[in-house]
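Lab notebook, page 48
Experiment: co-folding of the full assembly
Goal: obtain a model of how the components sit together before planning crosslinking
Operator: M.T.
Materials (sequences as entered):
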Amino acid sequence: MKKVLAMIMAGGRGERLYPLTRDRAKPAVPFGGIYRIIDFTLSNCINSDVRRIYVLTQYKSTSLSRHIQFGWNILSVPLGEFIGVIPAQQRMGEQWYQGTADAIFQNIYLLQQDMPDHVLILSGDHIYKMDYRKMIAFHLEKGGDLTVAAIRMNRTLSREFGVIEVNEDRRIIGFEEKPENPKTIPGDPEAILASMGVYVFDTEKLVRRLIEDARSESSHDFGKDIIPRMIQKDKVFAFDFRDGDQGGTGYWRDVGTIDAYFDANMDLVSVTPHLNLYDFHWPILTYQVPFPPAKTVWEEEGRTGMALNSVLSNGCIISGGSVRRTILSPRVRVNSFAEVEDSILLEGVEVGRHARIRRAIVDKEVQIPSGMQIGYDLEEDERHFTVTSSGIVVVPKWIKL
Amino acid sequence: MKKILLVEDEESLKLLYSEELSGEGYEVFTAENGKEALRQVDLVKPDLIILDIVMPVMDGMEALGRIMGKERNVPIIIHTSYPGYREDFMSWAADAYVAKSSDLRELKDTVRKLLKRGGEG
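Observation: model returned without errors.
Model output:
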C-alpha cells in the first residue's frame, strides 16, 4: 500500500461569504445544522482510509482549530494516523501564503518529515462526498505525475472554474482558469470538465515543481501556475469525479457566496436532497456537544410548536412557534407565535414571541426580539444587515437587536 | 563588478575562497553563518551566493529557505563536503551543488556559468 499524506488548504478568507466569515475562516462556517464546511473533506479522508492529514490554516483560524481539536481528535497516533493543524508560520521569509502553491511550499518540511509516496491536496472549502481511494488507484494505474479531479459542468459556468481539456486517454492537454470560451468535452459541446481543486501528486515531482514555482515570477497558485506548466512537461491526467462520487448524485459545491450557501442548505430540507447525509456507509463526522434531543411544545389554536420540512439539531426547543423549510442548528429556541420560513438559524439563536423571519441567515447567539420582522421589508433590512441581490438577509453574530 | 556572497564558517577556507574569487574579478562579501548571510543579503544584494551547509547559529539549509523568501532570483550554489544535504528537499532549490575541494576549478566554473545565465545586467 502506498503512503499518502493529505494536505487540506483551509486558509481562504471567504470574502464573498461575509459576514459569515467575519469571525471565522470559510472552512469553519457552519453548514447543514451540525456541520462545519471542512467536515466534508475530513470525512472523505477518513472514509477513504487517508488518515495522515495536515490542515493548513491562516486567517481567523481560532474557530477552525477549536472545531478540529474538539471534534476530530479521533485518530490513533501510535498507528501512524493524525490530523495536524498547521498555522502559517513564515518559515520562508516574512510573508503570508501568496497562493495555494505557496501554502504547500512553505510547508515542505512536513513532506520532508513524513516522506509520503503521494500527496493528496484538498480544499477545506468544498462540500461533496468522494472516495479518494478511487482517484489514487487511477493515478497509479495511469502512472502520471499529477492527477486532477474533474467534474462535468454546463459550459455556461466556465467563468467560475478552472476548465480542463483532455484527450481520449484522459491526459490533460489544456487548462484555463475561468475562460470565457471554454474547451468543451469531446462529443459533448454543452459540457466542460471543471477542476475540483483536488490533486494527487507524486511527492518528488510536487516538491520539484513547487521549488521551481517559488523561484520564478508567479502568483504561486496551483490552478494558475503549477498545472498549466506541468501539462507542458509532465504527465497530468484528469480523474472523472463520477468514478469516485460517493452516492452517485454528482454533488459538489463550492459554497463561495451567500446565495450558494443558502441554496446548498435549502437543498437539505427537500424530500430527496442531492446531498445525502443519511448514507450510513459514508458518515459525515463533526464535533457535537451532547445537547439534549430537540423537542416541540404547545398545541393550542394559533400557538402550536411545530417544524415542517426542516432540519432540527439537538438542543432545539420549538415552543409554540412554527418553523417551515428551515435549518435549525443546535440550541435554537423559537418562542410562541413566532414564524420562521426558508431560513438558516445558527447555534444558540433565540426567536422572540410574534417575531417573523423568512429567507434569512441568522448567525450564532443572536436574540431576535419579540415582534421583530426580518425578510419582509428588504429596504428596512438593508439598513441593519447584509442583503444579497437575491434578497437573502444575513444577521451577523453578536449583533444587539 | 559582480557581487558574490560567500557563506562559510571556517576562517581559513573563507580566506582562501575569498581571495581566489576576488582574483577572478568578483567583489566578495562574506558571512560566517546563515543568520549573518540573511543580513548580508539585505545589505549587499549579491548577484550570487555560495552557501556552506553545516554552520553554527543558523545552518545553510534554513538560510536557503529564508533567502528565497527575500530574493528568489539570486543563484545559489550549495558548497559543502557533507553529503547528506541532498536528502533535504530544500536543497533542490539550489541552482548548483559543488563539493568542497582543494581544486577550485569546479566552483569557479559554476560561478561563471550561473552569473552568465543571470544575464549581463
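Interpretation: DSSP finds four helices and five strands in chain B.
Next step: discuss with group before ordering constructs.
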